[in-house]
Amino acid sequence: MAHPDxxxxxxxxxxxxxxxxxxxxxxxxxxxxxxxxxxxxGARLLWHPSLSEESGAAALTLLEDAAAGRRPVDALxxxxxxxxxxxxxxxxxMLSGSGRPMAYWVESIARQARYxxxxxxxxxxxxxxxxxxxxxxxxxxxxLDGGAGGLLGGEFRSAGxxxxxxxxxxxxxxxxxxxxxxxxxxxxxxxxALDSLGRPRAFADHLAHHGCGRNEFYxxxxxxxxxxxxxxxxxxxxxxxxxxxxxxxxxxWNAYGSCTDGGFTCIGCTMPGFQDPGAPFQQTPKLxxxxxxxxxxMPKAWFVALAALSKSATPxxxxxxxxxxxxxxxxxxxxPKQP
Length: 339
Description:
This protein is α/β, with parallel strands linked by helices. Helices cover 26% and strands 11% of the residues. The strands form 4 sheets. The chain has a 5-stranded parallel beta sheet, sandwiched between helices. The protein has a two-stranded antiparallel ribbon with strand order 4-8. It has a two-stranded antiparallel ribbon with strand order 5-6. The model has no long low-confidence stretch (mean pLDDT 92).
């Protein structure tokens, strides 16, 4: 636990090759927004390119001091992929007024920061910016897709002793970011559990499938045929929730919904390489009629056998409702037992 007289835990935020969606998600943190939510556990936003007053020379001075170690940075948050092109120069993204590429600022401050967080899958693994055919040299901080090739290198460890903390997602749930920063600010960095790809296990040990509102349809393999249908989205519409790390359907977004709640399939956005699925996002690749992307821990033969049994046992109510955009047949209500 941080000492009450300790200086605020400082968070510096840089935007590299980003659409800004991760910032938009973070703004919805808790019920008070990012800046006030940070204050709840003794943290403060040192600088953010969209939220801070400092700009121009004042912002450059702050970044120069951070890169030189004169301004302590407890957590460097990087949003977006780092653009290293052309030819490794990084000049595809220059920080205005500095004469230097964003890659320089990310790396220089990362070498000084106590902890480094990749906010979103672009910063973590390259993401959308590193899609097949991209010519920008986009990479993540420590990874390119699921392998080596990130800006900082596989051996990178921050001053706090941790690799890059990958708060993956496109965009990540604001709770994932806030809880990670809270753990670091409260002195729990040494015990922060990360999975094999640097994602905090607090959310990565779950699957997006857990808690999905369509799970009854999944159990009976009652599948949607159109995006507006209420049935399971896995068999026909490309849903990867049974493979994608994340507790999206447990904590939900804005305390209410999720992608699958809204009728859109899970595209596995917390996974490296999600941007190149090999098929349209809302189409399930199949081999001999069997979905290629099966649940992570289920052998194909088991899935085929269980799917056949499940479909044969599908209640008429579930079968009908799966192909409608609202409940057609409600659950049966048994009359109360007579005394």
